[in-house]
Specification:
Length: 252
């Protein structure tokens, strides 16, 4: 049974929803989630969503023209497997604009993957690549760190884009092993931390991650990158861009 905007069940396990253009009652996005996720997607139009700019631009355009996008719940109180299958079915039915022939949806992926609410088990590692613990879900991991958004952890696990670490840790899905070569690969340069005697302390994915670890709230990586380029001293440590230890004699 289709549900109206005003009647989203607060106690739904998982559901599949469709965003609809009110001008022609044509669907333009198929999503999945739990609790208030549909409402957060629905109203999050003031800034372009980098994960799916096509959807957010569509919502923004409709509202600028004076229209209120509609949404309908097409499957409710379902488990994760069921919502993945339903999502795939509907995306295949309507197709993706610019990807599938005569497609009308703004979805980027064909469905059946991703994260409904952070429910897939994840493993946490320190920046040495040493295993710490396994969480039953991404949501549990985020809560343990007292953070609000687990999307960075999910991106690490998917190994897509430039997200190598999140909140000062490496992450993988529980059934996978950490690939340190991938973690420290790419265009971004890792930085190395040394104590005042020149002994190795830690290695970070990039200066930003190091700055975040040291609670540098304003442009976290700028200062550490500056000192690392000169093998300089900052926050009681030496920093370098290579595995070569700093020359302590230069600072004696």
């Amino acid at each position: 049974m289709l549900m109206s905007n005003e009647n989203i069940p607060a106690d739904s396990v998982y559901y599949v929803y469709v965003l609809i253009d009110p001008r022609n009652n044509q669907p333009f996005y198929v999503g999945k989630g739990k609790e208030d996720r549909v409402e957060r997607h629905y109203y999050n139009w003031s800034s372009i969503d980098k994960s799916n700019p096509y959807k957010s631009r569509k919502i923004k355009k409709l509202k600028e023209l004076g229209y209120q996008p509609k949404f309908e719940i097409v499957l409710e109180n379902a488990n994760e497997i069921c919502v993945f299958e339903k999502e795939k079915e509907l995306i295949a039915k309507w197709g993706r604009f610019g990807i599938d022939k005569q497609g009308i949806l703004t979805n980027i992926n064909p469905g059946g993957e991703g994260n409904t609410g952070g429910q897939r088990p994840v493993k946490q590692y320190n920046l040495f690549g040493e295993y710490i613990q396994t969480f039953s879900s991404c949501l549990k991991a985020v809560n343990s760190l007292r953070k609000r958004n687990g999307s960075a952890i999910v991106e690490c696990c998917k190994k897509k884009g430039g997200q190598k670490a999140a909140w000062g840790y490496f992450w993988t899905y529980a059934e996978e092993e950490l690939d340190l070569k991938w973690c420290f690969g790419g265009k971004k340069k890792p930085v190395y931390q040394w104590d005042l005697e020149g002994k190795f302390v830690n290695r970070f994915v990039n200066a930003y991650q190091a700055g975040y670890q040291f609670n540098q709230k304003s442009n976290p990586g700028a200062a550490i990158r500056k000192f690392a380029e000169k093998s300089g001293k900052f926050k009681g440590y030496f920093w370098t861009l290579t595995k070569e230890p700093p020359k302590i004699t230069d600072y004696a």
